[in-house]
Amino acid sequence: MKLIHTLSVLLLIFAAAFLFGCSSGGNSTCSLPAPLPQEIAITPTPDPSVTITVAPTEPTTLVDREIRGSVSAGTSPIANAAVTLFVGGARLAAITTAADGTYTFGIRPAGNYEITATTNFGSRTQLFTHTQIQDSIINFNLAKVGEINGTVRNLTTGEPVPNAVVALQQENAAKTVSEKAPTTIATTITNENGYYEFTSLSFGSYTVTSTIGNTIIETKTTEINITNPKSIVDFIIDLKGSISGKTTLFPENTPLAGIKVYLVDKDGQIAETISAEDGTYKFENLPLGPYTLYAEYIPGNYPYYFDIASTQLTPTLINSITYLIGYDHGLYE
Fold this sequence. Notes:
The chain is mainly beta. The chain folds into three domains: 65-141, Immunoglobulins (Immunoglobulin-like), CATH 2.60.40.10; 146-237, Immunoglobulin-like (Sandwich), CATH 2.60.40.10; 240-332, Sandwich (Immunoglobulin-like). The chain contains two helices and 25 strands. The strands form six sheets. Strands 17, 18, 21, 23 and 25 form a five-stranded mixed sheet that branches. Strands 1, 2, 5 and 8 form a four-stranded mixed sheet that branches. The protein has a four-stranded antiparallel sheet with strand order 4-3-6-7, with no helix packed on it.
């Protein structure tokens, strides 16, 4: 206990001496310990006048790339299609497609090229610029290169039938039977040679119908596909017509009954009939072509003579109405 008291007295004396020395201005040096360093967080404020540009990375080394692709018809690849590569109009290389429809010309220098794919049902050509950045992949889809054509001819004469209406139909891909009825997708008219055609068709099954006036002559079905891209559908029609009319007396247009009417075709063949009580007459089941009509009175009935008339049965005029005008001999001799 005495020792602790002694130490406390010594500490007090030392502190008093230290304080006296710092305040007396004597030769003694007195200093406080330096404060410990502190970290200060500073949040930078963006300066809108400063633009930071990030230097681009080095570009990938440019190298010559491949020219390749495929030839198909819809989803079906086309094997053995001829693919030709041109530069400046000059043929550079030619290959055929593999079983899966693909082809490749390998690595080619950059530049402008022309490439053509040819099959047994048509060809397509594409122009493109080949670069050193990536491969040029040129795919050909020849799905709509099918064609259906044919002629419409007269069975009796063998001559072409112009202006016949030909309709192209395709079955709807519907689920119910009633909704699967064929839908007309195109119509055309035969030209002066009886010829018609439908082009740029997708592969599939079709129905072709020929019509004369309001009469359906015939309906046929056909299919076009990769092996049969063009289908010829011809129609031979046994088109028959009729010529009818009335024999009347000029100028009252009074019907004349019992008048013998003659019909002469282009070969000089003659048919005849007699006008009915109302003056009407009719020749039916006649082949198309030109005809001449004339009439004469039956002796003992009417002393009349008649004008000669002519008409022609065509696909657009299969029923002709021709009036034969009679004149009284006594008035016009």
